Amino acid sequence: MTTKANSQGDTMKKINSIVVTTFNHSQFIAQCIESILNQNVEDLEIIVVDDGSSDDTPLIAAKYAMEGVRLYEKVNGGPSSATNFGIDKTQGKYIFILSGDDVLLPNSITPRFEALSHPAVNIVTSVPFWINDAGRRLRGDEYQPIFSNPGLLTPLQLFEKLLFQGNFICAPSVAFTRNCWVTVGRFNELLWQLQDYEYWLRAAAAGFRIHFLDEPLIEYRAHENNLSTSNRSRLEWEIDMVIPNAPTFLSQADVQQLLFGDGFRNIDLGIEREFLLPFVSIKNPRQSVATIGQWQLSKMAKNQQNLEVLSSKM
Known about the structure:
This protein is α/β, with parallel strands linked by helices. Helices cover 41% and strands 16% of the residues. It has 14 helices and 11 strands. An 8-stranded mixed sheet has the order 1-4-3-2-5-9-7-10, with helices on both faces. It has a 3-stranded mixed sheet with strand order 6-11-8. Strand 3 (44-51), helix 3 and strand 4 form a beta-alpha-beta unit. The longest helix is centred in the last third of the chain and has 15 residues, at 287-301. The protein is globular, with a radius of gyration of 21 Å. Mean pLDDT is 91; it is low at 1-11.
């Protein structure tokens, strides 16, 4: 790993930190960095993590060292590895994440900083504008509207919506508190496409609310090399790994409420959480996930003791 850093930026502790992860973004990285430098925020730590690019991305990013941008180059390990690496280098109380092919809109940092300053808010996001390779904003009929604002939800409601409807949170629009990072933990480095989705599920299960701002704060670039869309088979594999495992993040009370409703949250059903978890997957509208839940239940029932418990309680 090599490091290029501005010495003044290293010694001055900032309250806001932004981590840009980039891989072969030579076409876009300058616009990305300049959109950060153009923010109306002075107290901003800027870290760029190049995840083993084979193009000129690190050379371009290095040109901004005199403007306080700290560049770190590492061996390719995927987006989770790069994000974790970058956040480890931050000092700020509030952490913003961005991909090197996306662009901050003017006044993108301040509304999120102000939201996170409220003690009840630990994660904030918004729906983005979509742009193409050339930076042209796309019309609504030119992209799949996967991101949405669901309004005010409790953490369990958010978890349920994410679990059963899929990811609707735009990661490059997200900022969170250091307390959230310490509590929820690191991004899962086994995941290359759904690491953000799995993180939101963990955060919701840990009791964190996600606050949705009304106005778009970034431009999200859709192009053929987008990791989130370019490998469908990998995506399918990650979906069937993340969703069946997600209910394990929940407490017994949360699982009961998710399956049976609010009135069952604090009732002693006499059923251990492990016996209820497969039913959460069986309830999922995605057939492959429901099948995994059925397999989990079938496997559990092969154990005579488990079968007796299931037979007596269900």
